[in-house]
Queue: 2 jobs
Job 1
Amino acid sequence: CRLQELLSGGSGDSLWYIYLACCNFHPKVRIGHLKCLTRIQLCMVNITENGLSSLLFISLGLERLELRHCSTIKSLKIPCLQRLSYLEVMTCDGLRVIESKAPNLSSFRFAGDLRVQVSLGETVQIKQIYRLCNDAAFYARTELPSSMPNLERLLIHSDTEMVNTQMLPSKFYHLKYLNIALGGGTYDYLSLAL
């Protein structure tokens, strides 16, 4: 990958955006800090957790991280990146764990299995969630009101809802925008907004 040559040659200091698609990326050389890098977008990239961790560790100014169809990643661990505000993880089928220590994360988009363990650290900052998975409405109603009290925008997409969600005392007090896309079955959709 030509990017590895750029990064190892010291030219990476001026990079502000990395977009890689349909390739292998396994950084093996010592890379300096990528001070200007604000966005990383990987689509169908074969990268290990160690390779991704190394890249994130040196990207101190990162604001956006987008991973799509990167199925070799089993665990995504994001260090304390102060400027990271947007995280998107879409259809990374091998993924089992997402763990973020980024304190200013405000937007999280995720398409994948509901069984993926998601830990976003200090979730008070999170204002927007997009979740695409089966039983997304159940997840939104039972998990989000208490774990993300300042949520303003909630977008959920689910092809199946296997259970009828019970009414809970917790509510979305700051919710301003709700978008629900569900396929099949009957469901009390308005219970999400109450």
Job 2
Amino acid sequence: MPRMFAGSHCLVVVVVLLLSFSLLPSGAGARAVPLEKGRGKQALLTNRPARFTGRVLVRFRSGVAASESRRALTRARVVDSVDGVQVLSPSDEGAATLLNRLRRHPAVEYAEPEHRLYAFASSNDPQAWKQWGQTRVQSPRGWAIARGSTKVKIAIVDSGVDFRHPDLRYRNAGGRDFVNDDGTPEDGHGHGTHVAGIAAATGNNSVGIAGVGWYTKILGVKVLNSRGEGTDAAVSKGIRWSAENGAAVINLSLGGPDYSQTLADAVSYAQRKGALVVAAAGNEGSNAATYPASLPGVIGVAATNRDDTDAWYSNYGSFVDISAPGGSANPNRPQDGIYSTLPGNRYGFADGTSMASPFVAGAAAVVKGRFPWMNAAKLWERLRVGANDIGINGKDIYTGYGRLNLYRSLAIPGQVFGSVTDARTGRPLANRKVALAGTSRYVRTDANGRYRMRSLPYGNRTVVASGYGYESRSRTFFMPPNGTVPQTFSLRPLAKVTGRVRSASGAALSGTAVTIVGTSRIARSNPNGYYTITLAPLGTHNVSATKSGYYTRTRSVTLVMGRTTTLDFGLNLR
């Protein structure tokens, strides 16, 4: 991160400590070889099969006669089965028609299309094995969902970008040099090229490494000179230019300890243009505010090390929103740094929050490519919710909301569906509420007792079914990306018994055990003699009241669903 000289508005980048600790080129074997445009994408995606198999999976309700299930399947052929679920191949009707027909059939618990599953994507880049950071943020799993889009631009506002590098040449969306005031953002330092490779080096092209976004386009914006120094004015112009030229995400692996209104105004301008602004937290290991990371709405990124804990050098404070791999900054273990592109077709390791920031910015660009309708706030929400909480529970000053996880940020919401029935009669329960625990979201069952709740996020989820006159039941399950999870509920009908226990003289008796005979339903009277039994079974029951020193009394009562029945007791001394 750049330092601000005291008493001036000159933003100076001390590269060795602030933006990155070092840029260590690898040996001759790291030199890349030019590659024909588009080759990598074709190698990975050619002949990928369709998403659906054209078959249908169906489970019939418990107790359904075999003859009834056979009648439901007269126009389909059973080709396989899995734990009671039958795999159907449509005969004279399409899969969609068969699916819709089965979902309406009263004997069917659920029916769903059969999906194809794929191995998680990996790149064929020969030096990808050195990129432990990509593995840490689960980029390989994320690449099975999205790899970036050529329609999305990320601005690397830095020391320039070497677009002649074979891992970056096809990512070039143009650029600007605000140091020399021209249109060629040559990187005379190396920092910007390294940052660019982390965010968006071309993946699966049999060359070098893979960035977070394989196909994201890069705007190279030079605001730092060959010594890694820049000014408020140059950085501000670079930010504004990026926003005006369509950057969806702006990465700022630079900064300093002093506030600049000019810089703040430029950031606000970019945000109004719709850009998500991401900035490194700084490398002093202090809790002092750092700018632009501390500016409103900027995503401040701290660094984590190879052990997945906060890096010793990373700045901390309330301005830290998220964290990502930045390296361990251990001179004895350069391989624990972040490996990326360098000018002159080279590659090397570097450490610092400057390396962490483009992981986050690159991930935001990939999410934008997958969900192009999302604005900056929604992109950030995806990253925030998807992060792994590796520090203190919840947001903390060292790792923010957690360490970046590309896969979880991309995971497509799924849906849960099923039915709600009466446990006593088996009949479907209409207009019953099925709610997503911990939220205000709910749906109601239809006339056939069925429900479907869509857009459930990835992870462990709990749904609760409830309704007047019935007990509530919950189901906890894991929602995979784009998953369809069945959850059925069988609710017991209930009633409530309430009343008061007194002595023969009319005095309230506390601690009296009131029990529905033959069940586990019991309550004890309070100091005023009142008791309440909830979740009581329906029908006619004997209810007893027992207290030490008094004769037990038993009364008969008929309990009706959804109704509260009053039953008082008078006990005589022994």
